[in-house]
Amino acid sequence: MENIDREELKKLFAEINVWKRGSQRAPHKPLLLLYALGRCNRGSSRTVVFSEVDPILQKLLRQFGPSRRSYHPEYPFWRLQNDGIWELENAESVELRKGQTDAKKSELLSHDVSGGFPRPIYELLSRDKAFIAEIARDILDQNFPTSMHDDLLQAVGLDLDRQVISRAKRDPDFRNRVMTAYEYRCAVCGFDVRLGSSQLGVEAAHIKWHQAGGPDVVPNGLALCSLHHKLFDRGVFTVSKELQIQVSEHAHGTSGFEEWLLAFHGKQLRAPQRPDYYPKADFLRWHFREVFRTPARYVRSSLS
Ligand SMILES: [Zn+2]
User: Fold this and answer.
1) Could you read off the pLDDT of 234-273 as tens digits, one per residue?
2) Is the peptide bond before 73 cis (omega within 30 degrees of 0)?
3) 203 CA from centroid of ligand 1 (Å)
4) Cα(17) to centroid of ligand 1, in Å?
5) Ligand 1: distance of its center to the CA of 24 in Å?
6) Where are the domains of the chain?
7) C-alpha distances in Å from residue 218, one per residue of 95, 100, 272, 278, 283
8) How many CB atoms lie within 10 A of CB 67?
9) pTM tops 0.90
10) How many CB atoms lie within 10 A of CB 183?
11) How many CA atoms lie within 13 A of 245 on its CB side?
12) Which residues lie below 8 Å from residue 92, measured CB to CB, with a gap of 6+?
């Protein structure tokens, strides 16, 4: 790779296709890139061996990706080569999976394959921390809801001093319509604190993420307090098509868990004002499949 300028590099990052299979989430590449940007930001070596990336990316996928039976950090580590922003070392004699263009994980490990940004890209990024922040912000905006950005940055060790402020365009009308539909109250806990006449801490959440093509319509929205918004986006709870709140078996805690979460498990969502505002089953299904940390806890009342 010859020299590359900022605009060309931004274009390469923007062209990485991650939503290929309909609206199924595939956060593998974005997470690996954020991790690599974090390394670059800290001045770590340009390339890193797969054995070091493997457990870290597994953890990131488990925390920030959809619930899956297994996780495959080897896919993005191998496939990013084709996007022009990643190169591998020691990969010459790696054996591929049968009938596929992907490498076997065992091969990446046994050959000590390492990967990283190609040198011109690494050097361009290393010289310009603000540019790292800009790229990271684009990746976050394109792939994850705003409520997850801080946690993600922390998890990949990207300390950006608040430089990363989402600039994704939002439809203010969506927020207003969702708030009206739910009477400016959290649909889970009913939170509706006001300071004078201004309402605080209640937000319009997308059920199917904006980043996955979820539309700005009321049946794809929920009014949620900041806490329940964050927990919903992280898949700690979901809502069934019968509008029952279901908490994940993976969620636990001592202080606050019972009062702020478990107390609502199996309960009905506070319904919006009119039936045509109700969350649409398609969007709820997407949330269950792509965001919720399955399985849901047992609901006692459903058997009585
Ligand atoms: Zn709430």
Assistant:
1) 999 999 999 999 999 999 998 999 999 999 999 999 999 9
2) no
3) 10
4) 35
5) 27
6) 6-155, 172-296
7) 50, 42, 10, 8, 11
8) 16
9) no
10) 14
11) 23
12) none
